[in-house]
Amino acid sequence: MARASAGARLHFGFCNLSLSHERLYGALGVGLAAPRVVVDAEPVPEVSVTVETGSAAGDPAGSIPTVRDDIYEYASAATDLLGVDGARITVRESLPRHAGLGSGTQLAAATLAAVATAHGEPARVRERAPALGRGGRSGVGVATFERGGFVLDAGHPTARFTTDRPADGEWTVPPVAARHAVPDDWRFLLVEPDADAGRSGAAEDDAMRTAVERAEPGIADRIGGIVTRRVLPAIATGNAETFGAAVAEIGRLNGAWYADEQGGVYRPPVGEVVASLSGASPVFGAGQSSWGPTVYGVTDADHADAAAEAGERALDAAGVGGEVAVVRAANEGARIDAEGGSCSPSGDPERGNTKPRGDGA
Q1: The dihedral of CA 316, 319, 325, 329: what is its sign?
Q2: Which of 16, 73, 135, 361 has the fewest CB neighbours in a 10 Å radius?
Q3: Do the Cβ atoms of 10 and 58 come closer than 8 Å?
Q4: pLDDT at 248 over 50
Q5: Phi and psi at residue 239, in whole multiples of 5°?
Q6: pLDDT of amino acid 342
Q7: pTM of this prediction?
Q8: Which of 154, 70, 140, 148 minimizes the C-alpha distance to 112?
Q9: Is residue 89 helix, strand or coil?
Q10: Which of 313, 308, 314, 310 is nearest to 293 (CA)?
Q11: How far apart are the first and last CA of the chain?
């Protein structure tokens, strides 16, 4: 039996969506210690999948069949890619689907890594992620699965792209342009309002196509300056206040690209939650992770409790229910545990690149 365990990720936005610039996309994000995906795999002649009740954090029990279908597809593709027989998959923990926390990529990568390890094969997640339909536009999920931390990916050469999404397998995961360990005292507030899931699949493809067709290139120029003069220096020097304000501004600028598609700079009711958190002194910057509805806030260990209280007040002000947590970043990748061996990080490319919530303090 093998086990793969990987944390969620936050997605702060893209550096460029305009076809007038030479590189497209280029995503920023950070790996989280919680919530997590935990997938077990045993080698058997055929693929079978069990999703434990209560494993899908924040999801109703009715989502279990959908998670099972997703995992079955990933596991079947993994066995084909690896050239091995089947696997008995058990999902011990999973992320809320399409909530802005990277559920699809982390589940796909963890399934691939668990199946590969169970069969004694290297997973090579970065190489094989495109065949699983992952890592096309953003490389943050794959990169945090590999090594955790803060990640800026290099995007893709614009000349190779149209506004249509490439077919599965017809891309490589964007390379990592910059990675930094997140300081130990930083924390990330997660506010998950009770709202519809974010976009995925064909709906996401259509929205991204429209955004790229209409993208104002000047926004990318502004984001580039924020990344080089504020985000990267802040993570390198450990300045959480500057980092939080900078990624929040990048999120607002990304929202200008998506406003027509999601009903505003942030999707409802995220805008009200972000506005409330933006006025809270324990929160150094707030925004929408990916398509939401998860809202993140940047804070530190000294302000963690006050930030959580601000998150509860933000939900009340928006008139919605939801969940609030404060979590650490993860500065290592997914962990792969082979039977009879120790749990090891996924950074070794030959090993497949290996709740309750709280800050883990």
Answers
A1: negative
A2: 361
A3: no
A4: yes
A5: -95, 95
A6: 44
A7: 0.89
A8: 70
A9: strand
A10: 314
A11: 31
